């Protein structure tokens, strides 16, 4: 991912969404990407978000990345955040098989139900590859799932940061390559990104926006 750009100017604003079971590492992946750091996080309550400014494909981009809670009790709330997303990152834990089987049992169904944007780019991410000795889901299984559901695919570690930037880079480059998504992210519509409970803080902040 390119260097950070000025917080005022950008060519496109993209809304990205992280989904997947509780504990797979969604919030850690987001922190790893936005702050280059790793720390022990609590389970997300409702929905969180972070903003990151990047330059990629020759464009200045503002990424609004929404991080949803994986716990079932928040499902009704988090479903409303699929609306208008240009990119969606489905995360599972390569050391916990149920997080992988829940992709088809739960998460792909949520996408079908709640995603308003049919051209939205989907990315499947197998996290925690630093725990290779505990791996139970093979890379091939991830590749096969991604092919079946029409997703991009990468394995990464939010802890060691292996492939973390690549996840976001590949997703964003694909969005940049999709004219209908580009049109949505251009200046004319960027004001709508915080329609659901606008954050009161400044652009570099993060916070819980669920209530
Ligand atoms: N070893 C290892 N641990 C990780 C990695 N990513 C996350 N973790 C750990 O996994 C646990 C859960 O991480 P979170 O980021 O809170 O998971 P989450 O998907 O946001 O969970 P919810 O907010 O409940 O949906 C934490 O203890 C993290 O430190 C990774 O790549 N490797
Ligand atoms: Mg979380």
TrEMBL record:
It is found in: Cell membrane. CDD domains: Rab18. Its main location: membrane. It is a lipid-anchor. One of its GO terms (biological process) is protein transport. GO terms for cellular component: plasma membrane. Keywords: Cell membrane, GTP-binding, Lipoprotein, Membrane, Nucleotide-binding, Prenylation, Protein transport, Transport. Intracellular vesicle trafficking and protein transport. NCBIfam families: small_GTP. Belongs to the small GTPase superfamily. Rab family. This is Uncharacterized protein.
